[in-house]
Specification:
This protein has ten helices and two strands, in the order H-H-H-H-H-H-H-H-E-E-H-H. The protein is mostly helical.
């Protein structure tokens, strides 16, 4: 079945990545010191594998198409690199949900996934919270193209939800929004009466595949089960 094939593929890629990592570490640091690093890296890769299997539901979709298998492998390798580089579990979950959303809609396209992967891997938790709330509010609009007309009100509602529940002050909120500009997910609009932050069509593209708030809630629920 496709699901079994996917799980096997994920396991094989994780094992291969770990083996290559171990050889490289041993050659640089020597066997004794590299052992501790290897254990940490293996734990990260195993965690990443578990997140991927939890959040990617391939089901009975056909993975026999050679081009699709190539795209799946490319996405798995990029996902594995994020894990090896120390991406937080929330970021890995965002990547996994994006993979799942792409495959659920049609098929995985590695170029599209690569476009989002670097950005999602670098998000701080506070930035993800801000983007998730913005994403939800814009999604509720009848026509997202009107977001600029609703921009002041949307930003006001986002601030009301986030400050001080998740971010201490409005000044910190604006600072994080300024940082998020690097991703292309937010833009700063100068309107009548002042400026405001609002989402861009690039975040709309991501929204086709994944909900940022879903990743946050799934990770929070996972942490609760581990307490």
């Amino acid at each position: 079945m496709a699901g079994d094939m996917f799980a096997s593929l994920v396991g094989a890629l994780v094992s291969d990545a770990a083996a290559k990592e171990n050889l490289a570490l041993a050659s640089v640091f020597g066997a004794s010191f590299s052992g501790a690093i290897q254990a940490l890296r293996r734990k990260r890769l195993e965690e990443a594998r578990d997140i991927l299997i939890e959040d990617v539901k391939i089901g009975n979709k056909d993975l026999n198409d050679a081009a699709q298998i190539e795209d799946v492998i490319a996405c798995m390798l990029r996902y594995g690199r994020a894990a090896q580089e120390g991406a937080a579990r929330l970021n890995l979950r965002l990547l996994a949900l994006t993979i799942n959303g792409m495959y659920s809609r049609s098929r995985l396209i590695s170029d599209e996934f690569m476009y989002f992967s670097d950005t999602l891997s670098s998000l701080r938790r506070e930035e993800a919270i801000i983007l998730g709330v913005f994403q939800r509010h814009v999604f509720k609009l009848q026509d997202p193209a009107n977001r600029r007309e609703e921009g002041f009100e949307i930003q006001k509602e986002v601030i009301g939800e986030i400050v001080p529940a998740y971010i201490g002050t409005v000044e910190e909120f604006y600072a994080y929004c300024g940082s998020i500009l690097r991703t292309g997910f937010l833009e700063l609009v100068n309107g009548f009466g002042g400026s405001f932050y609002i989402t861009t069509p690039i975040l709309d593209r991501l929204s086709k595949y994944a909900s940022i708030e879903s990743a946050l809630s799934r990770e929070a629920a996972k942490k609760e089960t581990e307490l």
